[in-house]
Design goal:
The complex is a heterodimer of chains A (115) and B (112). By secondary structure, chain A is an all-beta fold. Chain A is built from no helices and 11 strands. With 112 residues, chain B is an all-beta fold. The chains are: A mainly beta (115), B mainly beta (112). At the A-B interface, strand 5, strand 9 and strand 10 of A face strand 4 of B.
Chain lengths: 115, 112
């Protein structure tokens, strides 16, 4: 049981390049999330998907797009990367259909540097 | 989403109990309190969650007073491996999307 898998683990881009970060979960969760974490900071929500076929903006959506490809996969795309998007990106999933304890399960992150 | 306030950092020694208090004065009726642990180069990991009174699991205890405006995470007999950042989050986990707001967290350093 792998949980939440993110690819790639590391990536270096040049300003203006595009890139898609991949995320897949094998826990049959309905909800998925993308966060970014800057050095010494907490996580900030970029986009989330409450269920397959739906996506909504979080706290910092500008410069990003997402696709909920199916129940398992939720991708994050940077169309034109900027140095301000240098960060660690975390994907998470949860199942709000369960009553009570519904923690988010996180992947180990993608470390993205934009030069 | 209710804003949380917690200490920036705490130092402790192996074998001691560590208590981290989080303030959430604007907590709503449907909000739960959840704590996560994050090690360097890893994603956050769920520790414990509660709504009111006291919750205990194999890792920690969570104390929530009657007014729910604060909560205290208690880590018994910490070891060096408990050195991490601990995040307190408050949110309606039954709401669509289950959005959570992470603050800066508390950096706990356990010394030998």
């Amino acid at each position: 049981n792998a949980g939440v898998t993110q690819t790639p683990k590391f990536q270096v881009l040049k300003t203006g390049q595009s890139m898609t970060l991949q995320c897949a979960q094998d826990m049959n969760h309905n909800s998925m999330y993308w966060y970014r974490q800057d050095p010494g900071m907490g996580l900030r929500l970029i986009y989330y998907s409450a269920s397959e076929g739906t996506t909504d903006k979080g706290e910092v959506p500008n410069g990003y797009n997402v696709s909920r490809l199916n129940k398992r996969e939720f991708s994050l795309r940077l169309e034109s990367a900027a140095p301000s998007q240098t960060s660690v990106y975390f994907c998470a999933s949860s199942d709000p259909q369960e009553v009570g304890n519904q923690p988010q399960h996180f992947g180990d992150g993608t470390r993205l540097s934009i030069l | 989403l209710a804003k949380t306030t917690q200490p920036i950092s705490m130092d402790s020694y192996e074998g001691q109990e560590v208590n981290i208090t989080c303030s959430h004065n604007n907590i709503a009726t449907n909000d739960y309190i959840t704590w996560y642990q994050q090690f360097p180069s890893q994603g956050p990991r769920f520790i414990i969650q509660g709504y009111k009174t006291k919750v205990t699991n194999e890792v920690a205890s969570l104390f929530i007073p009657a007014d729910r405006k604060s909560s205290t995470l208690s880590l018994p007999r910490v070891s060096l491996s408990d050195t991490a950042v601990y995040y307190c989050l408050v949110g309606d986990i039954e709401a669509a999307g289950n959005k959570l707001t992470f603050g800066g967290g508390t950096r706990v350093l356990v010394k030998p």
